[in-house]
Amino acid sequence: MLIRSRRGWELPDSAATPEDVFLSRRSLLKAAVAAPAIAAAGSIPGGPAFGQTEVAADDPTAGLYPVPRNERFTLDRAITDPAESTTYTNFYEFGSQKNIWRAAQKLKLRPWTVTFDGMVEQEQTVDIDALLKRMPLEERLYRHRCVEAWSMAVPWSGFPMKALVDFARPLGSAKYVVMRTFQDPGMASGQRQFWYPWPYVEGLTLAEATNELAFMVTGMYGKPVPKQNGAPLRLAVPWKYGFKSIKSIVSFTFTDQRPVSFWEQIQAAEYGFWANVNPEVPHPRWSQARERVLGTGEMVPTRLYNGYGEYVADLYKDLEGERLYV
Ligand SMILES: Nc1nc2c(c(=O)[nH]1)N[C@H]1C(S)=C(S)[C@@H](COP(=O)(O)O)O[C@H]1N2
Ligand SMILES: [Mo]
Fold first, then answer.
1. Rounded CA gap, 20 and 2, in Å?
2. Domain segments of the chain: what residues?
């Protein structure tokens, strides 16, 4: 999100956005070498296959996929090449660059438990595999719009977040669900960068979390979701900027207090609680009017709620006074 700086939020407004960096790298590549040759080679010398979607050795869930597609969710564009979406990732636990997918292979997938606590009928910690057995797995084609103005379109596998909320049995007084990523600085070198407020935290209102669109991701492209994309359990809330879609979740806490999320702690003026996609509300340092579609070199107009207004606009009709689009 903010790169090449230990203290990104202290950067002047003129600092390069990751997008600038990526675009200039791209043009450098194109100018210096024959880009098609790189694409055709299909691998990085000494590394695993470029765009790896092969299943990690410690992931026992391969047999669960593929799962039936829910045809209700359709795309207005091609599915993004997995070589792009699995190698150009944001996962600050493993570094602040986009190419951390190899570092992310250090993520240890088992044992993995998920805790449900706070305002619930009964606190519980469940094994991820036991949880997966109880959830109705399906595939959905979703668009994803990062606040940095790039986007992708991905077949996620997983289950509606509502099923998870039902499983957790929150009390009637709970208003928010707070999600946390693992914390293990020995495994994830980015977490040794002490100036970040680890662990990564995100939150939704319960109305958002139980909206039909809110989806818990466990797979991608008909296979277990790769480590770098947030295995074994991540969120997908496609009407919001990508930073809301927290990866590698270990806990869900139900509360009546609005949480302050990871990026909001770092820079509240730029990354708020609601973070709904809106092309007409610029980020303080760049426009949100258009987005670069990963893998195509194309710039396309961004849509209000990332095109998902029919599902979610009603959630916000009584919240006009809030900063809904930052
Ligand atoms: N724990 C954690 N979750 C995270 C992030 C992160 O750095 N750490 N980055 C977020 C951002 S900014 C985006 S755009 C998406 C990126 O998901 P992808 O890498 O699968 O495209 O993950 C989000 N979830
Ligand atoms: Mo993002």
1. 11
2. 17-312
86 CB within 6 A, ligand 1: no
Residue 241 CA, closest ligand 1 atom number: 14
Determine the distance separating the centroid of ligand 1 and the alpha carbon of 92, expressed in angstroms.
8
**Dist. CA 144 → ligand 1 center (Å):** 11
* CB of 91 closer than 6 angstroms to any ligand 1 atom: yes
The pTM for the full model equals: 0.87
| Tokens coding 151 | 């986007």
Q: Hey, what CATH topology would domain 17-312 get? A: Sulfite Oxidase; Chain A, domain 2 (3.90.420)
The series of mean pLDDT values per 10 residues for the chain, 326 residues long, is 41 35 38 34 37 81 97 96 97 97 97 98 98 98 98 98 98 98 98 97 98 98 98 99 99 98 97 98 97 96 98 97 97
Q: Whose CA is nearest to atom 20 of ligand 1?
A: 229
* 107 CB near ligand 1 (under 6 Å): no
